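ERR on first pass: missing label on line 2. Operator R.T. fixed the label and resubmitted. Corrected input:
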Amino acid sequence: MMETLLLSRIQFAANISFHILFPTITIALGWLLLFFKIRYNQTGQDRWMEAYRFWVKIFALSFAMGVVSGITMSFQFGTNWPGFMEKVGNIAGPLLAYEIMTAFFLEAVFLGIMLFGFSRVPNWVHTGATFLVAFGTLMSTFWIIVLNSWMHTPQGFEMRDGVAHGTDWFAIIFNPSMPYRFTHMVLASFLTVSFLVAGVSAFRWLIGGRTEGVRVALKTAVFTAALLMPVQILVGDMHGLNTKEFQPAKVAAMEGHWETGGNVPLILFALPDEEARENRFEIGIPNLASFILTHTWDGEVQGLNDFVAEDGTVLHPRVAPVFWSFRVMIGTGIAMLLLSWTAAVMMLRRKRGVEGLPKPMLYAFVGMSFSGWIATLAGWYTTEIGRQPWLVQGVMSTAEAVADVPAPMVLSTLIAYLVVYALLLVAYIYVIFYLARKMSRGEEIGTRIAPAPAAVPKAMPAE
Amino acid sequence: MNTFGDPTIWLPFVFAGLMGLSIVIYVVLDGFDLGVGVLFPFATEDEKDRMIASIGPFWDANETWLVLAVGLLLVAFPAAHGAILTALYLPVAIMLVGLILRGVAFEFRAKAPAPHKRLWNNAFFAGSLMTSLSQGFMLGMYIMGLEWTLPHAAFGMLTAVFLTVGYSFIGATWVIHKTDGDLQAKSVDWAKGGIWGLMLGIGLVSMATPLVSTRIFDKWFSWPEALLLSPLPIVSALLVFGLWWMLRRMPFTNDRLSWLPFAAASSLWVMAFIGMAYSFYPYVVPERLTIYEAASAPESLFIILIGTLFVLPTILAYTVLAYTVFRGKATELRYD
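pass 2 clean. output:
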């Protein structure tokens, strides 16, 4: 049973990690495309449509990846975690149902019109379809974040015969961590997309594809990133304070902080030792963690040792993974902040725009194309591993929910998924840069998915 | 909430109905997508492009009906969701990998470098085939009561093959409607080949289901049920005969009635499904768990139902809109 639990957790982690990569792109890219489309409608300039046409292809690709990996999730609730729906299905069920009904169909139906309908429907319908797809992705985010947040900060329910029953749906939907998590995730998506668009545009600029479409995409991306990065840091701080209130064990693990007390240092580096219950090689800044978490220099912060039951059962998550994923997120975020601000300043200086960016700067953007993915994944690992050993905080443990499926069966399907995911990830990144290279050579790409029925090869003129 | 009688009775029934509706819509709509994928190896390169163009704008939304069906099973009958899906662990995993391959191959084959296109065509075919076969296998296992024994698995293999043939049949009728010329003629031939498999498949399932359980046998072969139910087999037989007769003469001049084989094939699916639903009602896990035992709390179901009443007509409306925008013969599919 132990192996099945661990393997099932790894399998779910693999699936959901792979899945979240693509919604993280489509949530914000949909709105960016709508922005391009509206600018085109306003100005009539082709460069906006050029940017739209290139990025709508990346959107279509990402959307397909997100849809198929998401379907996997909806089945895995049943195949691997039947206990979850049996116990809290009365809460999770309606939330998932609303996601499918208000979001999935909206996105999927209007995607067809958005991708292939430009010459078939009036312009306003096409713009409307773009809006509905973007709106659908946001609705989907909302419902799934509501459910996820409820699992962290459950309320508005009562237990009857071991099964949760919803009593106050307003409280369930607007549970304490939902507003912070939702804002944090949507901003994460916008930042991920900003860096992807900036990175790919910088790549095209560097290899000589210096079109107007590339220029506007790069500018839009850099300024969006520079603008939203500080907002994200502020929201992240608020989210952290919210977590401290409702899930203090998670915050203690994030900080690598064992004993409850005041004047807590901010630990920059340490190797948390679960056995000895202490940190090795700790390097910290005195009092800073107290200040960040309580906004006073000597504020008291709860330590991990408060979350051990009298019989020795550990009720906090494993420290090292939470501690380190949190630092990866913060580190990546700082790199993103520095790069976007430097670039924004350089572009604003004497209004030189993209020409104001030196080559190393453009290379840095290419290198950071997928930095948003790293930060987003690290953030999700922090919050999800940080909830362990609970599946629904204080209501049910992860071990309670797992299916009694033989471990070898879980292992074999896990390997199959991993192989497929690895191949698809390589193909996805390869195709994005392939399209960028092709575009820079001035070739029209992929506008034709299939030839016209009457397409007859032109007769070759006689030599 | 008690206006319409006991909510623990009518709510599960309504949700079983909604789930059935989603499954029927799924097997018809994604059935033709999957069928097109299964027929892929029989087509030339140019024909492949046109077949893709005939389903390109729709497949994503079609697949969403599966998500809705499984979602309804999950939210309305959580206990059954767990029981069914853990019993079908491996075929579900194969189907999921198939759906992943099929879905992404759509995008990649149009965007990857030309030399890779073949690879993605193969992935599209393999994904569609894996999905069809595993769904057919699950159907067979479900009929047999979800117990893994050798004879049951063998029966599952049979239904796997027949469902795949059935999907390729409805896929062929879709291509008849959406194309013309050589490809249309070719798909008439595919449909002519597929109809035999379809008849055998529906026949097999119709014979096997009552034999597995005396309860189901009694539901069909007692008086006056047998009389009341007789339209089902009679209409199905007429549909099969009509299709057979029509396909031998197609295409008609001026492409008249090119939509009819698809419509008839869809009706046939609906008939077969009504028959199955009647057989298994009131069980959601065959002979083990009824929809009333497996249902979620009425409060939760009621909350979903309110939303469904508003949202489902909207979904149907914009689905019709999408099919209207992309009506007619499949032409060049362009991003602009």
